[in-house]
Amino acid sequence: MSLRRTLYVSGFVGASLAYIFTSLAFTGSFHVVQWTVFAAFFLVVFAGFERFIQWSETLDAK
Asked: In this structure, what are the phi and psi dihedrals at residue 40, rounded to the nearest 5 degrees?
């Protein structure tokens, strides 16, 4: 596993745990559908950020 992928996986796990514990602390319940929507949005933002990094690296190479 590359370093960047390891960082993304750990970021996803950390964000998921933070969401779960915050949800439990403030509402006292956990909803799988809401977590799934959060996880999907989080992964879409991560993928967009990865594309932005790749784009900026091509500009830096010129």
From this structure: -65, -45
What predicted TM-score, i.e. pTM, was given to this entire model? 0.75
Q: Which two tokens stand for residue 49?
A: 């950020």
Backbone torsions φ then ψ of 5, nearest 5 degrees: -65, -40
Q: DSSP alpha helices (H): ranges in the chain?
A: 3-27, 32-61
Tens digits of residue pLDDT in 13-26: 999 999 999 999 99
Which residues, other chains included, contact 41 with Cβ-Cβ below 8 Å and sequence gap of 6+? none
For the chain, the structural domain boundaries read 3-61
Cα dihedral sign for 50, 2, 32, 25? negative
